[in-house]
Amino acid sequence: MSETQELTGALANLKSAMAVAAETSQKTPVYEAKRDVLGRAYATGRRKDAIARVWIKPGKGEVVVNGCPVVKYFARPVLRMLISQPFLVSDRSNQFDVICTVKGGGLSGQAGAVRHGISRALTYYEPELRNVLKTSGFLTRDSRTVERKKYGRAKARRSFQFSKR
User: Fold this and answer.
1) Model-level pTM?
2) What is the 3-state secondary structure (H, E, C) of the chain?
3) 93-111, pLDDT tens digit by residue?
């Protein structure tokens, strides 16, 4: 009799341990929406030497960069397409207004920084979009930057020209 009680007790312990293990292994982190008092989500995006501060709020899809409309600031269509990619992937085009300030780098780096900032701000506004944006690669910061110049070199790696005489 005591042997069966021990077995049932051990079985109960095993079942509870398996339930705890299954619960912890399949537990995905739950993210909460982060919005300020005005209902905006804020994020910082970075690419090369450019840093973008991005605020998104519900609206008609207007994008303002450093006080200028996006069509005027990013004149090339490729750069505007780069900025709109997070909205297209998440099916949120023309649903959010974007206000951002960008510093540093060139136009291409600034467009990449704005895209990174918009993606992060979207995840703060709607945490359910995180998986879609993550699989598309918009939440990963592209860490490639210009290599610094070393002393004794003409540029970062190029040597001075050799002179025989």
Assistant:
1) 0.78
2) CHHHHHHHHHHHHHHHHHHHHHHHHCCCCCCCCCCCCCCCEEEEEEECCEEEEEEEEECCCCEEECCEEHHHHCCCHHHHHHHHHHHHHCCCCCCEEEEEEEECCCHHHHHHHHHHHHHHHHHHHCHHHHHHHHHHCCCCCCCCCCCCCCCCCCCCCCCCCCCCC
3) 999 999 999 999 999 999 9
